[in-house]
Structure formats: structure tokens, C-alpha cells
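Predict the holo structure. Ligand: 2-phosphoglycolic acid.
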Amino acid sequence: MRRKIVAGNWKMNKNLEQGMNLIDEIIKLNSSENVLKIFATPFIHITSAVEKIKDKKDFAIAAQNCHHMESGAYTGEVSASMVRSSGTEYIIIGHSERRSYFNETTPLLVQKLNIALANDLIPIFCVGENLEDRNNNNHLEVIRQQLKDALYHLSPADFSKLIIAYEPIWAIGTGVTATTHQAQGMHNFIRSEINKKYGKEISENISILYGGSCNAENAKELFACLDVDGGLVGGASLKANDFTAIANSF
Ligand code: PGA
């Protein structure tokens, strides 16, 4: 059985006090224990966030990034081993904002993936097409290529640790959500591609999250799709009630 997951990607929002208050509020609101809730916080919040959730099986912390080298003279950067040493278990890699604003190319993402896995972090790997690809009906091919180029060097054992997030770029932060037909279609496609490469057991057990303007109103119908195992949520993860409602939408 694959895990149901709702991950909040805080991006560059909330100071430390606001962030810790948000975690306190969400914990108080009581969401289903069957759903793993992940907070992807800014780096400086991470140790405090880990402390808040340390006795809770249904909560975890993610980093939003790490450097691609193990250590060294990289002023201002944070390594995968530092992230892991804080008690953080997950890491977002391949988010479209990092691909576009920080020029993260596929070879760089491969390095980040490898170093994250080597340090025992679980990557939440993001894929997604832009609007032009969608309008030109190229979206399946784009995602096929993103999966192949970034992930297919992994051994089955490493691949099976991943969480995949399908985030159509045109839906991120825009208020436009993929329809259930679009989301299910792509999630099913991703699962069948993984099946072709890694086989049925791995493809059936990998969690594939939807991201892109997922909110308290649309989460129920998205999560009802057979191949949608949860969400990677940006804007709506910054409000305790909304995030909890999303986590309770399965
Ligand atoms: P959004 O962001 O929910 O604000 O669209 C999702 C994401 O970027 O992960």
C-alpha cells in the first residue's frame, strides 16, 4: 500500500516564530494519522521544526534544497549531510522554481539526488510541463524525458525510496488547478512509465503527489483519483486550517 502524503512547501515564507506557530496550530487541529504530513520549511527553521514533531509518526520535515557537493568552500550553502544531521528525513529536488530561477539543470539535479540518497534523505522529486508543452500536446513526452534523464540511473532499491510530485508549471501559484482528468491522466502515465522501467511492484508502491494550486476546495476530488496519492502544496500550506483540511481530504 502506498503512503498518503500531504507536503507543505513553505517556500520563502514565515519567519521562525510564525513558522513554529503554524506547526503548533496544525498539530492541534488533529488530522488523520493515516496521512503523512510533511513541512518543507526554510533551512533555518529546520532544527526547531524537527523538535516540534519528533514524537509524531504522522509528521515529518523536509528541506527545500541542498547543495550538490558533500562539503567544502561553498559560502552560504547547506549540504545534504547537514540537512540529514538535523533529523530531517525528506528533501524537495527539481522544483520548477529552482529549475527556472536558479538555473538548476538536469545534470545538477542528478547530483543533488545522488547526494541526498547517499545521505539517507528521501527525495520528493518534482516534474512538470509548461503551458506551451501542454497546449502543444507535448506534455507526456516532456514528463517521460524528465523522468528518464533525472531518475533512470538509479538502482531499483534507490528508486523505490522516492516520492514523485507532478507539478504542472502552469498551475503553480496561479490559482489554475489541473482538472481531475488531467491529473489522473498524468499520474497514471507516470506510474506506467515507472512500471516499464522498474516493474510493477515499484510502480505500484511509489507515492505520486499532485502540486499546483491544490487547496482545501479541490483536494478531495484530486485525491479521489486512483493514481493521486496526495499533494505538494504551496500557498495553501501556509494556513493551518487549509493545510489540515487538505490533509483530511482523502
Ligand atoms: P502552489 O505551489 O500550491 O502555491 O501552487 C505548489 C508548489 O510550488 O509546490
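The chain has twelve helices and eight strands. The longest strand covers residues 4-9.
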